[in-house]
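Re-run with default settings, no changes from the original entry. Doing this only to confirm the output is reproducible before filing.
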Amino acid sequence: MISTLIALAALAAGLYLIAFHGGFWRLTEHDRRFAPADATIPPGTRVVAIVPARDEADVIATSLRSLLRQDFPGRFDIVLVDDESADGTADVARACAAAEGGADRLTVLSSRGPDRGWTGKLAAMHRGFDHVLALPEQPDFVLFCDADIAFEPPVLARLVAGAMARGTVLSSLMVKLRCESRVERWFVPAFIFFFQKLYPFTRVNDPRSKVAGAAGGVMLVRPEALARAGGLAAIRDALIDDCALGALMKTQGPIWLGLTDDVFSLRAYPSFADIERMVTRSAYAQLDYSPFQLLGAMAGMSVVYLAPPVLTIFGESPAREMTLVAWLIMAQAYMPSLRFYGLSRMHAFALPAVAACYTWFTALSAWRHLRGRGGEWKGRYQARQEQPTP
């Protein structure tokens, strides 16, 4: 009887997700469909990129070079906020800009690190945004972007044209993560799949929906709207800064979030431990540091992803047949994410094993938070400290 109830819950959840959850699995929101074909950008349009960087000397030249080479008809300047780097990130950045003939377009600011109550990345973004607000001529847009990504030349123009045509106050792109190592091929498509399940892009992009989100690698904002919303100080303690910014900006107007093939991550995740660190840094924050939400998330993952193969193989009728259908539904939903990364659709049937690892990452994230080691990024522990460290 219990197995039948679990099977029924798994089947119902699968049907709901594939039919009524914003079509998240179809990957329909893409930057190549963001701007109308006839969209134009006025020649005087100005954009300033703010790039927070902490110990990024190995990738910053590639990233900056891609920004300096943007095919953009207006004025495009870059503010690099050096967040207490110990590897010469700022020097590499200056040398790159000089080699590209763009030294006059790059400003390097130093950050003394986050003040109390701020997470590190947001503090660096705030430092850059304050600098922009003090400029004698305000830009039309501010582009917040990570230091470990690279852009193809048309991206900025496409993003600005789409934002102007749609009137968005925030336009964000989900960077295409590296998917080369064996570990990346197993875990990266699932990361995108689960993110879109949490924040269905069609609902994020619907002004009538309360769902809001963003992807921190590329976020184009209207500075006057961000200032009107209280600036980055309004979300200063957010560990998941991009989704917090998305929620903040949706109070000011329409936002848009989509996939792209033309902005890609330079960050490699060659081992299981690398993927683990990426996920555990913020997984518990995603659950608002709630043990009840943690238990609910683990139960939900177990029913939707883990129970179907177990009951299909070891269960009895009718649970076996119901969970087989549930397994096939989830595999079908996962296939577009695999295709987006050029992987075999046969990987879809291993989604339960990958989901089990993500469930473990989430539990580990909570454990590290309770030990005072949550939100670790390059030597900083940034998660909310509500529990005493043992």
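The chain is about 45% helix and 15% strand. The radius of gyration is 22 Å.
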